[in-house]
Amino acid sequence: MESLKKSDFYYDLPEELIAQDPLSDRSSSRLLSLDKETGKTGHHSFKEILKFLKPGDCLVLNNTKVIPARLIGHKQETGAAIEVLLLKRKDKDKWETLVRPGKKARPGAELIFGDGLLKGRVVDVLEEGNRLVEFTYEGIFEEVLDKLGEMPLPPYITHKLEDKSRYQTVYARYEGSAAAPTAGLHFTPELLSEIEKAGIKSAYVTLHVGLGTFRPVKEENVLNHHMHSESYEITPEAAAMINETKKSGGRIICVGTTSCRTIESGADESGIVHPGTGNTEIFIYPGYRFKVLDGLITNFHLPESTLIMLVSALAGREQVLEAYKEAVECRYRFFSFGDAMIVL
Asked: Would you give the distance in Å from CA 53 to the centre of its chain?
């Protein structure tokens, strides 16, 4: 395929449209609809999502749970402040982390958090400068982390989050993410119950979202970008539900790019989704042929990000950028705590 330029996915976004706080009612966000065939758009409230769903369709939702992965502490030797972001558990007490400032985190460095409730030792330097840190503590790690850790909000959110649960979906179940699957933040228990009553199925998969999600594409030629790896699980129940829906002519509508990447990674060339666990580095950009997905519910993504490239693979770059331009003109709220878009 000829080269795709990063700058092909740029759009102008006024800074004041970046949502800094979640809405008090999750489902009262706005919803922009985009017809992937015609490019036609419409403006709605997220509560009206049922208008777009038909009995026999299947929503695919990512039930990962964000851990309070941001730890603020200091170096034992010098007292210098240090910030650690937990990225991936490698072993019971060993984590791949992002340490800031990295220069101070050489192998052997001892780190202290919460007056010594939690201690860490840098064991190794990994690829891309990440650090392998081994933690020591008394009791249960998750409980210690819940006490000391903060939610690892994306860098463009500068407000403090008052309620940790607002950076979780209401169906979050399995801990392991360093970022929320934000398209799911719009759903309430009531809305999920209405969806079920309307004859629409929900299949839950798990993909633990890494901070690589926010890593900017540095290469001007998009095809040279190296995608981060994330671990996922597709249960036999979810695979069967998705495959049966496809077989009976229903549509598979993914809630979020993470659900999309999970099922596209777990599917074979004939579009059958297989249960199992794995790691995926799937990078979806224009030219990609979707094996399973028919539609997508998603938030508005950063200019030149791998996520806007994924949406463009589904609905065409020009149509997506045109819809984003309209969203800017209509003062939609952007990014993690922002409004949503449905592409069908």
From this structure: 23
Integer Cα distance of 114 and 99 in angstroms: 17
Mean pLDDT in order along the chain per 10 residues (344 residues): 85 97 96 98 98 98 95 93 91 92 89 96 90 96 94 89 93 93 98 98 96 82 89 97 98 98 97 97 96 98 96 98 98 97 98
Written as six digits, the tokens of 43 are 């403006």
pLDDT digit string, tens, across residues 5-35: 999 999 999 999 999 999 999 999 999 999 9
Query: Structural domain boundaries of the chain?
Result: 6-66+163-343, 70-148
**Tokens linked to 152:** 């690892």
> Three-class SS of residue 94?
strand
Tokens linked to 15: 């800074």
Assign a CATH topology to domain 6-66+163-343: QueA-like (3.40.1780)
CATH architecture of 70-148: Beta Barrel (2.40)
What is the distance between the alpha carbons of residues 30 and 244, in angstroms, rounded to a whole number?
Answer: 31
- Which helix or strand (DSSP H or E) is residue 132 part of? strand 131-137
Provide the sign of the torsion angle of the four alpha carbons 194, 200, 201, 202, taken in this order.
Answer: negative
Of 254, 285, 232, 282, residue with least CA distance to 183: 254
For 109, residues 6+ apart whose C-beta sits below 8 A from its C-beta are: 75, 77, 121, 122
* pLDDT per position as a tens digit, 173-225: 999 998 999 999 999 999 999 999 999 999 999 999 987 777 789 999 999 99
In terms of Cα–Cα distance, which of 62, 58, 55 is closest to 204? Answer: 62
Report residue 232 as tokens.
């996922």
Q: How far is CA 152 from CA 70, 91, 210, in A?
A: 5, 21, 11
Helix, strand, coil shares of the chain, percent, nearest 5, are 30, 30, 40
Q: Using alpha carbons, select from 70, 8, 23 the residue that is nearest to residue 336.
A: 23
Residue 277 CA, chain-centre distance (Å), reads: 18
Q: pTM for the whole thing?
A: 0.92
Distance separating alpha carbons of residues 18 and 13, to the nearest angstrom:
8
